[in-house]
Amino acid sequence: MPSETMATSPQKRRVVVTGIGLVTPIGNTREENWQALLSGRSGAGPITRFDASGYDVRFAAEVKNFDPRQFFDAREVKRTAPYIQYAVAAADEALADSRLDLTRLDRQRCGVYVSSGIGGFNVIEREHARLLDEGPRHISPYFMIAFLVNMAAGHISIRHGLQGPLGATATACAASVHAIGESFRLIQRGEAEVMVCGGTEGAITPMGVSGFSAAKAMSTRNDDPQRASRPFDARRDGFLLGEGAGILVLEAYDHAVARGASMYAELVGYGMSGDAHHITAPAPEGEGMYRMMVATLHDAGVAPEQVDYINAHGTSTPYNDKFETLAIKRAFGAHAYRLAVSSTKSMTGHTLGAAGGIEACYSALAVARQVIPPTINYETPDPECDLDYAPNEPRPAALNYVLSNAAGFGGTNGGLLFKRV
């Protein structure tokens, strides 16, 4: 770590997590998710959203028992896509959890940064079918505002009157890590006191499933969906498509202390990198992810040996898991064999643009509760994936620093480092 650079850099404000909200295939609240993680429960099952009987892949990890009418009136339900509905529900929970009194805040210093990889895919499909069947005059006037990637953030901002920085990234499966990281930067620089941030996705649709299937990215274990997602296992054959939202409330540490807030964890590092290699395949030896992890640690001023656990990108695809393992070994050296690594995608599936937000929530909970969530379905060791993947059972552990990794198509990578408060 170049000490001269760190010594001359301006003082950055500390940033903490004071609220968590989750809607995922394994639970519609924070505590439902945590209990599902501890019990190692998969969210996979046959697709119910449409008739998938003629598809190569006929299962997914759907959000279950979610009623958007708890958050929207009947007209709004029709005008909003699932990715917006999940984000609003998770944001409501996160803000309630933070116990912020919004009536007493300067709302111009409270912002929203919620991202998605795809946005309202189902709306695009529905309106395209209507265009072909009924003609252009029958397209919904709400079409454009129902599918755009930034609309989840917009709804949350309007709903809670948050007038500060407002944004959304569309960086594929790293989108919500980038949203959280950029929110972190805004608070560090003093441009905001509070940011509601994370990611959301709702792409279990005919085009979503058939597109990833055509790309040979998904598992085809139609006869055994709950064991399909098996990150780092030698018999992995692709990812499990999931959906949902993970939202954090980030807050300036001094602001949180002044109001006596409870804190899950401190966010201390954020890093990004580009593979500059291939539009879908990871860079050789995981070189891009390696540079991202080094950048994240450098941003925090933390040595590799201080990290206790990594919530891996861990998609259950042959290439990702191999190259992420190589990247971890390169970034952490001998310490890679002493820290724990797990992939909660083994339970939630790959929630695409929501994945980094959901896994950031899980990482902050792991720090707060001192437990490592497991990698379920880990049965057959892979000689090329030879780290400690916390197989099948949660593990109590002393966690001071937890790293959460993400990567996406186009060669984009992002990482977040959480610290025990």
From TrEMBL:
PROSITE patterns: KS3_1 (PS00606), KS3_2 (PS52004). It catalyses: (9Z)-hexadecenoyl-[ACP] + malonyl-[ACP] + H(+) = 3-oxo-(11Z)-octadecenoyl-[ACP] + holo-[ACP] + CO2; a fatty acyl-[ACP] + malonyl-[ACP] + H(+) = a 3-oxoacyl-[ACP] + holo-[ACP] + CO2. GO terms for molecular function: 3-oxoacyl-[acyl-carrier-protein] synthase activity. Its EC number is 2.3.1.179. Pathway: Lipid metabolism; fatty acid biosynthesis. The keyword Cell membrane does not apply. It comes from the Bacteria. InterPro entries: 3-oxoacyl-ACP_synth-2, Beta-ketoacyl_synthase, Ketoacyl_synth_AS, Ketoacyl_synth_C, Ketoacyl_synth_N, PKS_Beta-ketoAc_synthase_dom, Thiolase-like. Keywords: Acyltransferase, Fatty acid biosynthesis, Fatty acid metabolism, Lipid biosynthesis, Lipid metabolism, Transferase. Residues 12-420 form the Ketosynthase family 3 (KS3) domain. Involved in the type II fatty acid elongation cycle. Catalyzes the elongation of a wide range of acyl-ACP by the addition of two carbons from malonyl-ACP to an acyl acceptor. Can efficiently catalyze the conversion of palmitoleoyl-ACP (cis-hexadec-9-enoyl-ACP) to cis-vaccenoyl-ACP (cis-octadec-11-enoyl-ACP), an essential step in the thermal regulation of fatty acid composition. Belongs to the thiolase-like superfamily. Beta-ketoacyl-ACP synthases family. This is 3-oxoacyl-[acyl-carrier-protein] synthase 2. It comes from Chloracidobacterium sp. N. The lineage of its organism: Bacteria, Pseudomonadati, Acidobacteriota, Terriglobia, Terriglobales.
